[in-house]
Amino acid sequence: MGYPQKPHPKETVVLSKHFGDAEARSYKGWVKRGGYAALEQALALEPTKIIDVVKESGLRGRGGAGFPTGLKWSFMPKEKKRPHYLCVNADESEPGTFKDREIMRWTPHALLEGTAIAAHAIQAEVAYIYIRGEFTEPLTVMEKALVEANAAGVFGQIKIHLHRGAGAYICGEETALMNSIEGKRGNPRIKPPFPAAAGLFGMPTTINNVETLAAVPHILKNGAAWYKGLSLSSPKSTGTKLFSVCGHVQQPGNFEVTMGFPLKDLLYDLCGGMRPGRTLKACIPGGSSVPILNREETESCLLDYEGVVEKGSMLGSGGVIVLDDSADMVYQIMRLARFYAHESCAQCTQCREGTAWTTKILERILAGQGKAADLDLLLDLSENMTGKTICVLSDSCAAPVVSGIKKFKNEFEAYITGKKLPVIAA
Amino acid sequence: MSVGGGAHPTLQAGAEEYEPVFAGKTLERLNETLARYPTKQAALLPALWLVQQARGWISDRNMAEVAEVVGLTPAYVKGVVTFYTMYHQHPVGRHFVQVCTTSPCNLCGAEGVMHAFLQATGAQEPGATSPDGKWTVIEVECLGACGFATPVLIDDDFIESVTPDKVPELVKRYK
To answer: Which of A112, A93, A97 is nearest to A166 (CA)?
Structure first.
């Protein structure tokens, strides 16, 4: 729990090397550990050169979608006619994910350095780091680091500002995040236009996740070939990734491994396996928005973008939720549906109504009032919630429901037939 | 006291008792914030945080004052305030407790932690304030520290790995 903790021999520590090292939080400490050398190097380079290196490294977005970072940067206009902006997504709110929090708590300068490099690469003069409102400690640490770095004048012409969110999961969606910075409700925008054409304040904008940007200085320092070499399986997934593991394991926490690492080893070696006398039942490998894996799928899954898709789920943000044989799948899926119902921005009917009704039907089943047709009704609802809305919050609610009913149908049926007693009041 | 200069009608009605939030140090901080953005409106979320830090919650009158300083209507500001869950639209207890009960924490016993807080603080039910005005306890969705279940926010203190047995001791630490 927490830090300092010794890395497991199977970990490859790049981003997490200084987690738990309080001295690394200060500007002086960071410079002593080789920090800001990559930024100095970057500021002397043409922006396109930096984009080429990042493209070549194979780095993909660590926030969930896995979009190639260098390619995303290359969408920004080459010839700058209007202000360009960089937004940093530090609105980490995906249930099961808590990696960006540790990056900001322990290595705030890694994020600031990566932010400044990215801003230079996309020719942005201003970068906003959007930190979720609940992250009081990371915000304080980042504020202090920013003051120190500004005093040292390391950012050149680039201005970095922190912007505190105020409690809305949906603001982690890139266009909702931009609206939130603009002082609006955090409603996602219809795309196109894409942010690189018209983003924050209507100007060309790039949005990157905290972990993605924290990796950038390492890539510049060590070269694209080094980063590409950090891959165990698919050449399309390179580098290291922080996996946040929570739920029913002996040793939850953040673990950094190379892409393609076996999920089984992550759970049984790095996390110490299940609690005594318990066995693995299911795993949600990429934050709560991805389909649930059963035990067989989990134990044969390789952790990279392609490997998890092969098992029928997604790598997402790398938030691994582990459920052992004591878990009530119906209850946990209801709890996730309730989360999405609470967090829906309510713009799209399919999402507003769909997340609310999914929750109500699941609650009804858990209260012993489920009907035989409810499972078909849930699947029908989920189909209408998938691929039909402005953003993917609605799809995210449907994913655990559909995969849950498919893989753990007997647990739903036990409540409906009365074999299992109700666990919530009607 | 009047807010001054072209105040909105809602401010003028009964303006005699209203003490503006944006004065002195808070006004200085607002002006620093405004300088970070190309539009005034972008300072809305930070301005609302300043109000909540100064007053503990955000009243309709406060929203009208914020509207004035960032060039929006009070109705627009209210629309934004109601979107974000962390802005209090009502007074809350002296200490505000947020217990995460989303799935990962739920798996690790968060409902027991919630129950323990309601008991130890005397707040009785989620969202209610204890009779002594000291505590308000709510259930919240994912606090983003799932590996350290159950995380709890007491005011601005983020506390990891809370279990029901630790709650009474924790509650005693707050005056």
So the answer is: A93
CB contact under 8 A, B46 and A319: no
CATH number of the CATH domain containing A150 = 3.40.50.11540
Which residues does chain B have within 8 Å of residue A336's beta carbon, measured at their own beta carbons? 102-103
Does residue A13 sit within a domain? no
Q: Are residues B71 and B117 in the same domain?
A: no
CA distance B88 to B82: 9
Smallest Cβ–Cβ distance between B83 and the set A101, A186, A336 belongs to A186
Query: Residues B50-53: contacts with CB within 8 Å, 24+ apart?
Result: B50/B21, B50/B22, B50/B26, B51/B21, B52/B87, B52/B88
Q: State how many domains chain A has.
A: 3
Distance from CA of B76 to the nearest CA of A (A): 9
Q: Looking at residue B15, what is its pLDDT?
A: 52
Q: Of B158, B98, B28, B32, give the one whose Cα is nearest residue A131.
A: B158
Are B74 and B101 in the same domain?
A: no
Do B144 and A169 count as a contact with CB atoms less than 8 A apart? no
Domain span including residue A378: 329-416
Nearest by CB to residue A134, choosing from B72, B147, B153, is: B153
pTM: 0.95
pLDDT at B8 > cutoff 60: no
Residues A321-360 pLDDT 10s: 999 999 999 999 999 999 999 999 999 999 999 999 999 9
ipTM metric: 0.95
pLDDT given at position A133: 97
Residue B72's domain comprises 9-83
Q: Omega into A95 within 30° of 0, i.e. cis?
A: no
Inter-chain CB pairs, A–B, below 8 Å: 148
Residues of A in contact with B161 (CB under 8 A): 1-2
**pLDDT of A426:** 79
pLDDT bracket for residue A2 (50, 70, 90): low
Chain B interface disruption, residue of A184, A211, A325, most B CBs within 10 A: A184
Q: Which residue in chain B is spatially nearest to A251 when comparing CA positions? A: B147
Interacting residues of A57 by C-beta distance below 8 A, sequence separation 6+: A70, A219, A224, A227, A228, A238, A239
pLDDT of B3 over the 50 cut: no
Average pLDDT rounded to a whole number, residues B109-118: 96
